[in-house]
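Severity: low
Component: inverse-folding endpoint
Summary: output formatting inconsistent between runs
Steps to reproduce: submit the following structure tokens with default settings.
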């Protein structure tokens, strides 16, 4: 089963209610869903009643012989975006591409990033802040923004280190003559200078 879209695929139906629709044949000049989409595949559909104000757009699944289409997921409709209980009469059923699935409708702000939240489903990662970088989340299911080394280093002389696994942290610059040391495994600044033992050793050598 695959998502398939195709041009000029349109059939009629007289099915009523909210269930699967049985196709009644292609409209003149159009292909059947069997020919244009294929058995058991999914596609985006639109249903329009020819004499009543009833319509529906959604994701549908064709039967194994493409004789029917199941309305798997309704995207928008004349019934408040819920499944329409279609009245008697003829309806057109055709392949379409919903506006909500286009990149232009998903990306609402300059700097947004488009990604797939699941198969055939575009989603938006809103733009981050200055100097952030894109990384995968901890579950490796979606991108997210994270602090970059540049965003952590706010002053000349700052030092970057790992405060934990895969976690960057900043040690602010120390003062003149301080030396870098470790305290409980974390780098820190300490007073510098010559030790007493070094002074004695130097005196003996002289």
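Observed output (run 2 of 3):
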């Amino acid at each position: 089963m695959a998502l398939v879209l195709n041009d000029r695929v349109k059939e009629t139906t007289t099915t009523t209610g909210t269930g699967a629709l049985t196709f009644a044949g292609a409209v003149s000049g159009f292909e059947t869903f069997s020919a244009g989409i294929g058995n058991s595949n999914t596609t985006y559909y639109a249903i329009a009643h020819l004499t009543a104000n009833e319509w529906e757009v959604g994701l549908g699944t064709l039967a194994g012989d493409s004789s029917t289409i199941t309305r798997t997921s309704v995207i928008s409709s004349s019934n408040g975006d819920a499944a329409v209980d279609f009245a008697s009469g003829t309806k057109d059923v055709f392949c379409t591409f919903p506006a909500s699935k286009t990149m232009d409708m998903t990306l609402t702000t300059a700097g947004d990033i488009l990604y797939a939240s699941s198969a055939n489903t575009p989603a938006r990662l809103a733009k981050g802040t200055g100097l952030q970088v894109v990384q995968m989340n901890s579950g490796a299911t979606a991108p997210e923004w994270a602090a970059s080394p540049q965003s952590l280093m706010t002053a000349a002389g700052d030092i970057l280190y790992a405060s934990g696994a895969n976690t960057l942290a900043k040690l602010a610059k120390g003062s003149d003559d301080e030396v870098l040391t470790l305290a409980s495994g974390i780098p820190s600044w300490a007073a510098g200078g010559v030790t007493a033992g070094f002074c004695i050793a130097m005196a003996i050598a002289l």
